[in-house]
Amino acid sequence: MAIEHDYFGLIGDYWSERKEYGDQDVEVVLDADDDTVSTASLDAAAGMVGELELIDDELRSSFVNQIDSGGSAVMRFLEAILNGEEADAAHSAVNRDSGDHDIDVLRSLSLVRVDLRPDADGPGEVFAEFEYGLAPEDTEARLVASIDIGREIVDVRFDA
Length: 160
Hints:
Layout: E1 3-5, E2 9-11, E3 14-21, E4 24-31, H1 39-50, H2 52-65, H3 73-83, H4 87-93, H5 101-108, E5 110-116, E6 128-133, E7 142-147, E8 153-159
Parallel strand pairs: 4-5
Antiparallel strand pairs: 1-2, 3-4, 5-6, 6-7, 7-8
Helix pairs in contact: 3-4
């Protein structure tokens, strides 16, 4: 039996929408099976869509806190994007100048995509993934933050 949600409509396998805030155009995707998802999880997912800007700010702050961790995904991403084959495109995409280049890069990231998985609603399960890129139309490298339903970070990874 299909579930209908006030925000997402009829729940099937896939829902997608483009959201704009600030100067960002973000693809938001909901991947849910109507047999395994609860209305409460769908409500939480809709709440995240409504708070994209707030969650984005929280995740960026978390990225900044990981700069001092030499082996972190954030540092591997920065090293790859700033010193790899796509470095010219990456450097030209940095739109801030605070004097700390790593922080300027993290603040210049574009939120490209948000994947919502409301059927993974337990603590520590990946409920949503936020995918970031620097000059995403010109570079392949992505920094992906996974959060649970309580908006706690489960994982941060670098995808090349």
